[in-house]
Design a protein that fits this description.
Blueprint: E1 2-8, H1 15-31, E2 36-38, H2 49-57, H3 61-74, E3 77-79, E4 83-87, E5 90-98, E6 104-109, E7 115-118, E8 121-124, E9 136-140, E10 143-147, H4 156-164, E11 169-174, H5 180-196, E12 199-204, E13 220-222, E14 228-231, E15 237-243, H6 246-254
Parallel strand pairs: 1-2, 2-3, 10-11, 11-12
Antiparallel strand pairs: 1-15, 3-5, 4-5, 5-6, 7-8, 9-10, 12-13, 13-14
Helix pairs in contact: 1-3
């Protein structure tokens, strides 16, 4: 049984304050036995177009170096939420993943950008970010895992592609808001888990009351049957969950939908 922790951090306007707090939360999670620790989307940058370019201009290297140190020091698999990554003049919403020696073993650039026209909310991530173009599956000491970021969760083909490439856990750093969160957060996590009979870990930021963008919070873990096996509220905290990877094969035997894909009729990239 693996022990996993999601650090549902509230991102502060002072980046150094956020970095210090993140280190303390990750350390606390590891001290309590977590072997895998997950951070939220844009954990080091307030989730607003007002801050994206400003924080991107400061560079992502400090945050990446810090996460590498934390993983090595604490001996954990660290799924680094996401940070604004700059590369050749472009900005990406990127999740970096580190093994227990601090080596970067994966990075996922958010493929589907959050461009929406909801009642009372118009948001255009594409005005800042460039979309990623790769499906992210990586090997760990525990098995194969995958990563997506927030709006990626609304595209089941991406999750199916990770599943057929062998992922048993898919991490989803996210910041659903207080409009979409109550309606779709739990349902989306559960359905992506049910579709592919694997674990889905939704790692949200904590809500910052009074900020322009209100994160739904409610980080959660869905198991291969689609049950929510761990969840918290909107406040800053660490969420813990046990992960029994044998449940993936078990569910695929007793309810073998994933094993009966008609790849002669339909398929996603492998």
């Amino acid at each position: 049984m693996l022990k996993l922790a999601v650090c549902q951090i509230r991102t502060e306007l002072d980046q150094h304050e956020t970095m210090d707090k993140a280190y303390k939360m990750v350390s606390q999670a590891a001290g309590n036995g977590a072997q895998i620790v997950v951070l939220p989307e844009m954990w080091n940058c307030p989730y607003s177009k007002e801050y994206f370019k400003k924080y991107a201009a400061q560079g992502h290297h400090e945050a990446v170096a810090a996460m590498s140190r934390w993983a090595a020091e604490l001996g954990i698999l660290l799924v680094g939420g996401s940070v604004p990554e700059t590369d050749e003049g472009k900005i990406y919403n990127t999740c970096f993943v580190f093994d227990s020696q601090g080596r970067q073993i994966a990075h996922h650039r958010k493929v589907h950008l959050f461009d929406v026209d909801l009642p009372d909310m118009r948001f255009r991530e594409s005005s800042t970010f460039t979309p990623g173009e790769k499906i992210t599956v990586f090997d760990t000491q525990y098995g194969k895992m995958g990563c997506a970021v927030c709006f990626d969760a609304r595209f089941p083909e991406l999750f199916r592609a990770m599943a057929v490439r062998g992922a048993q856990i898919i991490f989803l750093p996210a910041q659903f808001n207080t409009k979409t969160g109550p309606a779709h957060w739990d349902l989306t996590l559960r359905m992506r888990a049910i579709d592919n009979e694997l674990f889905v870990v939704g790692a949200s930021a904590a809500r910052y009351e009074g900020f322009s963008y209100l994160s739904w919070g409610h980080s959660a873990v869905a198991d291969p049957f689609g049950d929510i096996i761990a969840q918290c509220d909107e406040k800053e905290q660490i969420l813990y969950s046990g992960i029994d990877l044998s449940r993936v094969d078990e569910m695929r035997e007793i309810l073998p939908t994933f094993k009966r894909l008609r790849r002669d009729v339909y398929a996603v990239a492998e």
